[in-house]
Structures are given as C-alpha cells and as structure tokens.
Amino acid sequence: MLASTRAVKAPPHLFVQVMPTPNGRLHLGHMSGPYLKADILARHLRLRGVEAHVISGADSYESHVELKAAQTGSTEHAVATRFHGLIEQELAALRIDSVFTDPLRPDLHDEYVAFNRRTLDQLARQGGVETLREKVRYSPSLKRYGAGCWISGTCPQCGAGSGSYFCEACGGHYKPEDLRDARCTFDAADVREVEVESLFLRLRRRQQLDARIERMGIPPGFHQILTRYFEAQGERVRLTNPGRWGMPYGPGDGVIFTYTTGLLSFSLFCAELFKRAHGLEKHPFAPDSDYVTVATFGIDNTVAYLAGVLGAAVEWDDIKPFDYFLTNHFYNLEGRKFSTSRDHLVCARDLVTGSGVSPDAIRYFLGKVNPEAGSKDFIVSEFVDVNNHVLAGGLEALLSRAFAHVRTGAVAAPSDGLMRELDRVLEEQASHLRLPTTNLARAAGCIDAWRDVGARLDASDATAEYWWLKGFSMVAAPFMPDVSQRIWALLGHGGAPRLESFTDRPVLAAPPVWTPAFESVSAAAVERSVHREAARSPGGKGARE
C-alpha cells in the first residue's frame, strides 16, 4: 500500500493572505509570494485529508485608494469597488482559491467599521494606547494632509526614495515629519505645517514578542528589520493617521491606520465571517481554538505584521496570535520591481486570456522561480522556454503517451517498485511544504522528479502508465490544479484529488480522451501581456503596490 495514503492527523488550517490595496490589479509580483504560497499549501494539506482554507480581503481604506480616485476623477468608493472585482478576477485566473472579502459591501461595511473600532477600544482598555503629537503639512483649501499617499521624500533610515509611512527599500516605518526632503504630492498654494494628534500602541511585552518570533521561525533578516524599527521609533506602532478617507477614530481628523494593527483587525473580521459561514462554535483566533492560523506577506510588510499584527496580538489577552508567518522577498520583472503605480507589471489574467498561457504553467514557473528565500526575477524568455520545452514539449508528450495506453475495464495493482518511487517523491514534497520552513522551488521540483520516473517507464506497460498518471495527479495537485483535476476525473474519480482515494480503481466504461494541457506560445504573444515602465519615476507609494 502507498504509505502516503495513510490518514494524516492534523488540526484544521486557516491561511490569511496579506490584504491588498484595491488601487490596481494584482500582478505576478503579488502572486509569486503570499497569494500563491497560501493556495499551494492549502491544496497540499487538503490532498492529504487535512481541512485547509484561505481567506483575505481588500484594504479599501488604505490611502492610495484616495490617490487613485484623485488621479482618475472618480470616488474612493468606486475605485475600491472596481479594483476589488479585478483583484478577484486575477486570483481566479491563477486558480487561487481564496474567500476574498469586500469590506465596503453594503451588508458588511457598518459591521466592519464597528469591528475595527472595537479592536482599538479593546487595546485602549488594556492600557497600551497613547496619544502623540506629530507635525504634518496641510492644505486648508484641499482639506488634505501631507501624509500617507500624499507625501514623498527620502527614507530617514536608508536614504532611498520613499513615501507614505514606510520604505520599500529597507522596510522601515517612520512619521511624516521624519521623512527627509519631504514634499507633498498634491498641488496647493496654502500648504502649511500643523500639529495633529495620533494614537499609537505601546508594545510592553517585547520579550514575549521576540520569543514568539523565534518560535515562529521568522528569518533573521526580517526580525532585524523590526529591531531597527524599534531603535528608530521606539517600541510602539501607529494606530491612527490624519486623513478623511477612512474609519474615524480618536481626536481631530484621525482615521484608523489600516496598515499595522488594522491588518490584525481585518484578519479577525475575515475569520469571524469564516466562523459564521462554517457554523463554528469557536473563533479560529480564540485562545483555545484548534485552528492553525497562518499569515502570508512580503518583506515590505515586515513591520506591519511583526509589530502591528503580532505585537498587538501579544498585547491582547483574549486572542491567540497567528501560529505562523510565511514571508517572501521582492519579485522583479527583468531587474525592476513589479509596480502598479509605474505600470511595470505582468498580470496572470492577461497571460491566460490574452496570450493563451495555461494557469498551471504560470503556477509551476512561479513555484520554481519564486522570492521565498531572496529576490527573484520574472524573465520573459525564461518563462517561454519553460512553457514550451519543459511543459508543452516534454511533459505533454508523456501525458499524451500515458493516456494512449489507458484501457477500459479492471486495472491491475501497481508494482511495488513504482509505489516506492511515488512514496519517495510525495514524502520529499511534503518535507518542503511543511510549516514553517517551506521551500516552494524544491517542492515544485518533485513534479520534475515524477516526470522523470514516467520517462523511464516501458511505454508498453499499460498498468504502469495508468498508475504513473494517477501519481502525477497527486504530485502536481498543489501547483497544477487544472491538470491534476483533469487526470483524476479522466481516470474515473469524482471530487478533488485525495491521497486516501489513490488506491481506488474505478472501472472505466470508455477510454479517456486527453487533450493537451500545455501549448507552446511565442515570445511575442507573452510580450503582449507585459507592461514595462519607460523610465523610472520618483519613489512614492512605499509598499503593497
């Protein structure tokens, strides 16, 4: 018997992807990190019989929604609603199975705002919230503050071009008054400096926070970003910021800052909706919940998650902090970081619908060339080569050959040798997808290993070809859901591929007909989906582009 089919005893898992700003579509820079990883891990767990879900939502009150509205002559609500829908389309194009929440939806909005306010109220009751005065620029005629998306300059920590409250280059956070060479990104003749009051959360349990970061297996470089932040700003994290687009809270024009503790509140809110939808008795973040909770995010979100999400959760006695954080570095488009604001990007939906690329081909390539351990590049020529030679060439020929030998009627048992090979590949893949030390590239490489097993088979051995196909549906399932599901269904199985059903042998009434899953594409076809900036523009947004 295939050892990998034995039941896996594990608690249910809930993955929470970082909440994107709905001021643009999700591109492959986003997908290569937190979005694809959560989906791959959830599919891997479900394949092995473990309950796993993925949730997220659009951070509609982030200030760059306001900027996009000003640039397009639209309203903030219209911008957020439009791009929420486009983000969902991008997730669907890459087969990322996430329950994606729109907090501006009429039936959710008031509850969402109240939920965020209660989060800050609870932290205030525990005595950790303090009011600080800070200097910002302000235009009375525009009623606009030079903060968030409306300010840019030089990072006070690393000297890179930066903006908003945080720096992409070093991951540091700062106050608007700390930004060197600061300038407003709006035109107004009456800009003046004013003092505002903002709320911050004092992190009084630094030792517990550091200890939890160590237990979670956070890479040391990410922990160092947090340490530098504390050294520069003190052991506190922003809760509110001056502005008018957002959820009012605190003194003056203060609104809830959605990019630190607001991410924790949004995670809790999405989990509350999940609890209701699944009829759970306990919230997944309840102190005694058996759910394993996992957040996925990029290096530019380090302070937001380690200080704002984890730090606040450690301070909050009534919730269980995230069990794991899964991180990634930047993903570049041929040497330059993917960027919505600079229109330097590639989107999955364009590749699939406009260039004729299989979603599984994109997922496989991003799995092999991903920024999990360091920055990586999406290079068009490399992608075309992998699609055309590795997938449409080599793999497709093996799939077609194997299906040509599948017969109707009863199927003989597999050989022990083939099953030992499959066990080895599946267990190796599982070791690379085990929390918290995942390695997507090596896990995707197990698809190659099983492909090579198929290449060595005697093509006249119909039984071996059948079981190789079924094994491929298992190994490929986390990365290639479309191909995996098609193989599983053509071999007579219903539902999603599951290891526990691997040894079942449905009797086929008719020979299965395989149609190609991967087609060769020209570089010119892929180029139609690629946007490259003509020239680098000044630093501005800061993060989550």
TrEMBL record:
Pfam family, one: tRNA-synt_1g
GO BP annotations listed: methionyl-tRNA aminoacylation
Reactions the enzyme catalyzes: tRNA(Met) + L-methionine + ATP = L-methionyl-tRNA(Met) + AMP + diphosphate
Gene3D superfamilies given in the database record: HUPs (3.40.50.620), Methionyl-tRNA synthetase, Zn-domain (2.20.28.20)
InterPro entries per UniProt: aa-tRNA-synth_I_CS, Met-tRNA_ligase_1, Methionyl/Leucyl_tRNA_Synth, MetRS_Zn, Rossmann-like_a/b/a_fold
Family: Belongs to the class-I aminoacyl-tRNA synthetase family.
Record's protein name: Class I tRNA ligase family protein
Organism placement in taxonomy: Bacteria, Pseudomonadati, Myxococcota, Myxococcia, Myxococcales
